[in-house]
Amino acid sequence: MTPATTFSGRTVALFGLGGSGLATAKALVAGGAIVAAWDDAQAKRDEAAAAGVPVVDLASADWSAYAALVLSPGVPLTHPAPHWTVERAKAAGIEIIGDIELFCRERRRSAPDAPFISITGTNGKSTTTALLAHILREAGIEVAMGGNIGTPILDLPPPSDERVHVVEVSSFQIDLTPSIDPTIGCLINITPDHLDRHGTLEDYAAIKERLVAGARTALVGVDDDPTNAIGKRLSQREGADVYPVSAQGERPWGFFALGREIRARNAGETLEEALVLADIEGVESLRGRHNAQNAAFACAAAWLAGVPPEAIRAGVRTFPGLAHRMEQAGTRGRVRFVNDSKATNAKSTEVALAAFERVHWILGGKPKAGGISALAPHFGKIAKAYLIGAATEAFAATLEGHVPFERCGTLDVAVARAAADAAATGEDEVVLFSPACASYDQFRNFEERGERFKALVAALP
């Protein structure tokens, strides 16, 4: 745990007692703060009380006594409307922050030079975070990995000059972290997502920009228009330390993927002089064009953190990958099953489809803005689509006349039908579960959805 001592002796309101919220409440208590915590769910309030966290009904509380509102990232700050606790905090004139902000303040107070690498982006941030942490560990460096990937940041050990914090940060978390200041900040890409929570793409991009704008050294993608604009803007600041990162081939300087090689190049160097940091050819956990981008960022951050190229190459070769992200879920005969449950939007699914020549595609769930029309260039490689969940009719309308499809309703039916059709060809086939949708219509989250897919594959005869 990292005790949050910056509110020692002061009273703090906290709303949201899920995983990160409860960890934050405990860290505040451990740091000497007087906490008034609340959650709409009785079970969460009971869990907090059992852990020694004071539970107070914030709806009837006197907000003039609070120094700050610490908000869980899942609670709306601005859109579609501010949560009622946000309105109460604004009326009381107190700041509204999150757990990442508490960590940043603790780091500045206790260990301002402690290595802190932070990663954000619409897609790929979890794989990049995990790959970077793996490379650092394999190089013999102590790593604390968490944030939006697994362990809440305040459940990690405290910042230290002897330890590197590798932290994935979502747009919701950045919005609650006004002073985010990583040693190395990574902004991988920006595509439309979470607009229901941020209003517009411009607002969403501006929030993402804060992470690299506050970083001592920034790694910024150049493969999409929003990040490219951010990189150019930051590079114009006096004293800027900003490096471009691309997965689309040779760049005159910076970090880039040339085929499956990840290279670092100084301005003025020839291509032959550019340093090869890693080669991801044959690394199954980094299959696909999108993973070349993820690997480029992870290798660049490791290099800037002082890891020698030979150690970076060794770490990349042994990376096991992440669950639910192009995960090999098993084979039955000549049919391979791939679990890409983390693909919750069309952009994520696009890179999965691009990684294969022919697939039996299981998709659907709670649809996002834009649907799957952007995936039309890949329709020719889809042997058949198997539709599930709330998106069924909208996706059927898009696929009609272009791709054979079947309305399956639920995942168990889709897996059985796709497995049977793929096996019937007698050829090497791939069944790809890449939903292009949120999971909330039938599952609690993408993890539960992916585990269900793997269990269904394991149960196939």
TrEMBL record:
InterPro entries: Folylpolyglutamate_synth_CS, Mur-like_cat_sf, Mur_ligase_C, Mur_ligase_C_dom_sf, Mur_ligase_cen, MurD, NAD(P)-bd_dom_sf. Residues 324-437 form the Mur ligase C-terminal domain. The keyword Magnesium does not apply. Its EC number is 6.3.2.9. It is found in: Cytoplasm. Belongs to the MurCDEF family. Residues 119-302 form the Mur ligase central domain. Keywords: ATP-binding, Cell cycle, Cell division, Cell shape, Cell wall biogenesis/degradation, Cytoplasm, Ligase, Nucleotide-binding, Peptidoglycan synthesis. GO terms for biological process: cell division; cell wall organization; peptidoglycan biosynthetic process; regulation of cell shape. One of its GO terms (molecular function) is ATP binding. The keyword Cell division applies. One of its GO terms (cellular component) is cytoplasm. Pathway: Cell wall biogenesis; peptidoglycan biosynthesis. Cell wall formation. Catalyzes the addition of glutamate to the nucleotide precursor UDP-N-acetylmuramoyl-L-alanine (UMA). It comes from Salinarimonas ramus. It catalyses: UDP-N-acetyl-alpha-D-muramoyl-L-alanine + D-glutamate + ATP = UDP-N-acetyl-alpha-D-muramoyl-L-alanyl-D-glutamate + ADP + phosphate + H(+). This is UDP-N-acetylmuramoylalanine--D-glutamate ligase. NCBIfam families: murD. PROSITE patterns: FOLYLPOLYGLU_SYNT_1 (PS01011). Its main location: cytoplasm. ATP binds at G121, T122, N123, G124, K125, S126, T127.
